[in-house]
Amino acid sequence: MEGGIIHGGEDESAFRECFSLTWKNPYVLRLAFSAGIGGLLFGYDTGVISGALLYIRDDFKSVDKNTWLQEMIVSMAVAGAIVGAAIGGWANDRFGRRSAILMADFLFLLGAIIMAAAPNPSLLVVGRVFVGLGVGMASMTAPLYISEASPAKIRGALVSTNGFLITGGQFLSYLINLAFTDVTGTWRWMLGIAGVPALLQFILMFTLPESPRWLYRKGREEEANAILRRIYSAEDVEQEIHALKDSVESEILEEGSSEKINMIKLCKAKTVRRGLIAGVGLQVFQQFVGINTVMYYSPTIFQLAGFASNRTALLLSLVTAGLNAFGSIISIYFIDRIGRKKLLIISLFGVIISLGILTGVFYEVTTHAPAISSLETQRFSNLTCPDYKPAMTSNAWDCMTCLKASSPSCGYCSSPNGKEQPGECWISDDTVKDLCHNENRLWYTRGCPSNFGWFALVGLGLYIIFFSPGMGTVPWIVNSEIYPLRFRGVCGGIAATANWISNLIVAQSFLSLTEAIGTSWTFLIFGLISVIALLFVVVCVPETKGMPMEEIEKMLERRSMEFKFWKKRSKPLEKQNQSA
After folding, report:
1. Contacts of 555 (CB under 8 A, 6+ apart)
2. Residues 241-256, mean pLDDT to the nearest whole number
3. Which of 41, 69, 228, 260 is the most exposed place for a label (fewest CB within 10 A)?
4. How many domains does the chain have?
5. What span, in angstroms and rounded, lies between the C-alpha atoms of 483 and 467?
6. Is 506 a domain residue?
7. CA 304, 529, 307 angle in degrees (round to 5)?
8. Which domain holds residue 431?
9. Where are the membrane-spanning stretches (predicted)?
10. Residues pairing with 372 in the sheet
11. pLDDT for 334-372, tens place per residue?
């Protein structure tokens, strides 16, 4: 059957067999890791902007004063990724998986050069769009290429390497951010160095073949057979070639053409429609449970929780990025042992609990903000926040009230007697910031001093640990294997586009939401969406662990949804093979 041969005991041996490829068949690992650099690019761009944004605000005052401009710099890459993912689906079916990855690398490299040289926010946004186009194409092509070049038994583990490289890219980006904090042109180095892995993948992909399944679709059977013989063992390869040939021929017989895809029939086909419901739903919920608010804005979130220093915020963000990479390693180990669906459900349970903790932490941070000292604030009357002057005799003002002042914007200088003691509310500019620092006090413009800040690190850490192994990697794995071969590129593009549209909505609205309703209410909304996501997974997402791709199609046709996900699924194909 298409996708590979199933043997007994794969639950226990899949991870071990994947690891043994290092010496048994390094060619398969080379395919997986070379294509997975697309995941590294995806992760690096997601993580690097969170730190670069702190210094972009310092260089461009227009960015510092406008929340919408900060959101635009972040989200324009996402907007480009929406277009890139949509084009990527078409390009994958038309030109092949390998060619689509090469196009993505070129766009990413071009964008990195433009960002590094940007003299103003407008050109920076243009560079972000080009990077987004490349990331969008790579995000749906890399797992597809890996999936189609992997034996079924270890397909989940190998596609999970793409997830590991995404999180590895995020961790690398925070290391790069920290490395360049004291270098001239800080954010330019952070953004420009992203072109290096794109150039590396561009070179590596020239030495690798096209997807064997795509080659079969295009009638290039000899090339496909030669690649399959390098991927599969001698005892399995002939049956795999025969199964793949039968699958392609049956599709051609059904449709009358191996080239033309009827979009109306795409929507009407039961297997495709059900696959899209599961695949697109997972991609949408992956974003709406809030992951990229953490990855795009984690230093800002730590500042909202009461950590004033840019460097401290970046160091704490490095912890969350490291946990994210660790979680993806857990996914590689468990994905083919306990299955996709069970991993998703465990992941979402943890995410819901973590978001509840974050909601409580930020509620406490907001309601226990230190007061404003009228006496201290008036020490320099020309520096006093204009909005505060009419309220000097009132005790209603605290740090949070001060930071919400907007005519002009104001900042909070902590008390020398302890950060929880009343401090000053002054105009926010570099001179006042330096004055506060010269008195060995902390200057706050994003969040207020709090004894609860460390609990935010705990909440974010738990969120990442639970999110990464399940909701972080499984949606990409499911989308790489759940669609019929004929529609895999197009459907993968639709799902990836849905992911990026959801990503754009979250990235463009997070800072505005925190300003409008507060950080605690924002995380509460993400928590409620996570509950809905959990119900969706239980009802709509089938288990595909260890199943040949053709059997996945048959399962969708029968609508054999696994509500009792904890029970071991029977292996009808294996039994059929044994009886034959």
Report:
1. 542, 544, 547
2. 68
3. 260
4. 3
5. 24
6. yes
7. 10
8. 373-449
9. 31-56, 68-88, 100-119, 125-146, 158-180, 186-208, 275-298, 313-336, 343-363, 452-478, 490-511, 523-541
10. 423
11. 777 788 888 999 999 999 999 999 899 888 888 888 888
